[in-house]
Design a protein that fits this description.
With 195 residues, the protein is mainly alpha-helical. The chain has helices at 6-25, 29-48, 54-70, 81-117, 120-138, 142-152, 158-165, 169-186, 188-194. It has two domains: 8-116, Rna Polymerase Sigma Factor, Chain: A; 119-194, Winged helix-like DNA-binding domain superfamily/Winged helix DNA-binding domain (Arc Repressor Mutant, subunit A, Orthogonal Bundle). Helix 1 crosses helix 2 (29-48) and helix 2 packs across helix 4 (81-117).
Length: 195
């Protein structure tokens, strides 16, 4: 008994795939499933050769097959679907690698800038400044302090503060004016050193 040659086997596979593509173009999900089962594993292995993790490679292959299904009416039944699938996976793998490279560079840049920004001296001076501001706010008269913190820390409008406290908007404005004047005076040494 004569065994078929490799070229005969390839021709038979190509003819079978052309049938699958014709059926897929008509919306035959069973033909699509056969195509998927035939090439999913080999395509995932192919994607991994680019250095991608298994979940990323699987996602790429799934995306390629999803694209095949959503654009099935545009498939060329004469063109080799196998070559199309491998080309699509290669392109997506390269795109993913470029994306990962950009992300890596971005993380490194952020890490470097964070190191440059977050010196112990800077952290200490920021904490010291925050402490002085808190202390100055605490020195405000009760009503003034309440209105100031509601405005600056709780981000409430003057109208909202007036409604919550049962006072007029004019009173809120007056108290905020007093609070800001007092804080400018208390923190003048810090403001002078920053300018």
């Amino acid at each position: 008994m004569k065994t078929p040659s490799k070229s005969q086997g390839r021709k038979k596979q190509a003819a079978l795939e052309q049938d699958w593509v014709r059926d897929i173009r008509e919306g035959n999900s069973r033909a699509f499933e056969r195509l998927f089962r035939t090439y999913c594993g080999p395509l995932v292995n192919f994607a991994r050769r680019f250095g991608l993790d298994l979940p990323v490679a699987e996602n790429i292959v799934q995306d390629v097959f999803l694209s095949v299904w959503t654009r099935r009416t545009q498939l060329d039944p004469v063109a080799a679907i196998r070559a199309y699938l491998y080309t699509a996976v290669r392109n997506q793998a390269l795109k993913q690698l470029r994306h990962e490279k950009v992300e890596q560079r971005s993380r490194e840049a952020m890490s470097t800038s964070r190191l440059a920004e977050d010196t112990p001296e800077k952290n200490w001076s920021q904490q010291e400044l925050a402490g002085e501001i808190r202390s100055a706010v605490d020195q405000l008269p009760q009503r003034c302090r309440t209105i100031f913190t509601m405005s600056r820390y709780d981000n409430l409008t003057y109208g909202e503060i007036a409604q919550i406290l049962g006072i007029s908007v004019k009173t809120v404005e007056t108290q905020m004016g007093r609070a800001l004047k007092s804080l400018r005076s208390s923190l003048s040494h810090i403001l002078d050193s920053l300018s």
